[in-house]
Design goal:
Number of strands: 3
Number of helices: 3
Number of domains: 2
Structural class: alpha+beta
Largest sheet: 3 strands, antiparallel
Order of helices and strands: HHHEEE
Distance between the termini: 35 Å
Amino acid sequence: LTHLEPRQITRKIIEFIGLDDQPFSVVEDAGFRRLLTHLEPRYMLRGRKYFADVALPELHQTVYSFIEGLLKESVSSSVSFTSDIWSSDVSPVSMLSLTAHWMYLNVSLVT
């Protein structure tokens, strides 16, 4: 295994929280803390407030800037949107998805 920088580990943790719809409190769970201590004992795991107030806004800005850059380099000046609302039989929560479509420099569709 290679040594990971603390910023890389923090980034992967916030990605895990977002991608797997985990609560910020997962970073304070005993099993999660033990796993990280086993994998990288030198990593100082921060609390949920840090991930909510610092790590998530940083990731949001990174993703926002990336998408903004793609849109600025697009072939066309227009973006089309599609939306869908759905719910699950096993969950009382309804979901709304919004997808953007545009043409990129190499004339490929970006979704």
